[in-house]
Amino acid sequence: MKRVTGIGGIFFKAKDASGAIGLVQTATSESMSKNGWHGFHWTDGEGKPVAGTTIWSIGSAQSEHFAPALQLSMVNYRVEDLHALVKVLREEGCNVLEKIDDSEYGKLPGSSIQKENKVELWQPPAGQ
Predict the structure, then answer these.
(1) Other CB atoms within 10 Å distance of the CB of residue 80
(2) CA triplet 23, 120, 39: central angle to 5 degrees?
(3) Nearest 10 degrees: CA dihedral of 9, 14, 16, 20?
(4) Domain tally for the chain?
(5) Which of 39, 44, 81, 89 has its CA 20 to 30 A from that of 96?
(6) Is 78 part of a structural domain of the chain?
(7) pLDDT in tens, 96-122
(8) What are the C-alpha distances in Å from 57 to residues 67, 77, 84, 85, 87?
(9) pTM as predicted
(10) Which of 87, 88, 78 is nearest to 125 (CA)?
(11) Tens digits of per-residue pLDDT, 51-100?
(12) Is 128 inside any structural domain?
């Protein structure tokens, strides 16, 4: 079983989220949503679109998104089969959160906590 197939998202917390969002927009010439995220759509070597997106997100330092961890950034890893991988990780002794949501955005959070750090596993919907 392939464990990780790519990066689904990179998430940051900032004391001045709107200032950080403005800086990223200026530096990258990419617009971000008012909620502080932007999706970078994948392309092949010739610039043609392929299935997949990586999210860049900046949120408030008070956000509970990474809870129970206290870190200021988190990586979200794309996986092919979240339920199977979570089972294997638990068998290997990883502290994986119990709750897995299945929504229009895919299956998540399937998160693992290791020494105050959280990483998120995400299975995108079919075709993405």
Answers:
(1) 13
(2) 40
(3) -40
(4) 1
(5) 39
(6) yes
(7) 887 888 888 889 766 776 667 888 899
(8) 16, 14, 27, 25, 28
(9) 0.79
(10) 78
(11) 888 998 998 888 887 777 778 898 999 999 999 999 999 899 888 887 88
(12) no
Question: Domain containing 76: what range?
Answer: 6-122
> What single-letter amino acid sits at 20?
A
The residues near 12 (Cβ < 8 Å, ≥ 6 apart) are 20, 57, 58, 59, 72, 73
Which residue's structure tokens are 């890893």?
77
Closest to 78 (Cα-Cα) out of 54, 47, 50: 54
AA identity, residue 21? I
